[in-house]
Amino acid sequence: MAQSKILLYYKFQPIADPKAIMLWQRDLCESLGLRGRILISEHGINGTVGGDMAACKRYVRKTKEYFSGIEFKWSEGGAEDFPKLSVKVRNEIVAFGAPGELKVDAEGVIGGGVHLSPAEVNELVAERGDEVVFFDGRNAMEAQIGRFKGAVVPDVRTTHDFIPELDSGKYDHLKDKPVITYCTGGIRCEILSALMINRGFTEVYQVDGGIVRYGEKFGNHGLWEGSLYVFDRRMHVEFGDDAAQLGHCIHCNAPTNTFVNCDNGECREQVLMCESCAGTPELVHCGNDACQS
Ligand SMILES: [Zn+2]
Ligand SMILES: [Zn+2]
């Protein structure tokens, strides 16, 4: 059996004709038998595709011809992890609801936070101690099973909620502190860190390569704690067997890092549930009154 892989990648750079790039990428993926999801905007590309190893290698080579310097993260999986191929043009490659505010040039996002390698993250914390604030750049739900130690977790359901959350004044006391933003692979913080700087945060950093790269480097022996939520059928990954379990079942409080969809078709909220509660049909709901009945 041919070996297969999943590629994760993004690149911020100005694209004069996103539609032409979309058509080229769709043809390329179809000809290589890749499946997955690719978003293209006038600010760049954001994708996850899976397929045979040889096809992935060829995709990487071709895509680098236009997106020079783009970095690919390779992970286990294949085309079968995706229902189909979807290549689309959007206003934004990450939906912050701020397409007009984001500015990019050939080097990437303009005015974003300083990139820190995983080792530099630890150095900053060693030097500045408790002054340093980790700021979670993901949906709050993702942080329930894993986050940087002591992190601030904003109250957001989707990335669209970040701007009202920042504008609420709740985090104004952090504006003169060293703030390290982090997210799964780094893309959300490219934008979030720029939005924060635009709103008066004076010392903003971002973890280069995100939690994925930090976890690869330090496993469970650095400043990261717990599991990493991922948006594919694996649901979460751990950096070794000794990962702390931070999540708790919403019904019985037992430790768990498994999310279950609320049974109410109109809700579908993902909530943490232990194996025993998830196996009890009348408990497969998110806890809201409407969903319980
Ligand atoms: Zn339970
Ligand atoms: Zn529900």
Automatic annotation (TrEMBL):
Enzymatic class: oxidoreductase
Pfam families, A to Z? Rhodanese, Rhodanese_C, UPF0176_N
Catalysed reactions, semicolon-separated: uridine(34) in tRNA + AH2 + O2 = 5-hydroxyuridine(34) in tRNA + A + H2O
Q: Does the keyword Ribosomal protein apply?
A: no
Q: Which HAMAP family match?
A: TrhO (MF_00469)
* EC number from the UniProt entry: 1.14.-.-
SUPFAM superfamilies reported in the protein's UniProt record: Rhodanese/Cell cycle control phosphatase
Q: What does this protein do?
A: Catalyzes oxygen-dependent 5-hydroxyuridine (ho5U) modification at position 34 in tRNAs.
A Gene Ontology MF term for this entry? Answer: transferase activity
Keyword field contains tRNA processing: yes
Residue ranges constituting the Rhodanese domain according to the UniProt record: 128-223
Q: What are the entry keywords? A: Oxidoreductase, Transferase, tRNA processing
Q: From which residue to which does any coiled coil extend?
A: none
Q: What is this protein called?
A: tRNA uridine(34) hydroxylase
In its UniProt record, which GO terms are filed under biological process? tRNA modification
Could you tell me the superkingdom of the organism this chain comes from?
Answer: Bacteria
Q: Which InterPro entries match?
A: Rhodanese-like_dom, Rhodanese-like_dom_sf, Rhodanese_C, TrhO, TRHO_N
Q: Which family does it belong to?
A: Belongs to the TrhO family.
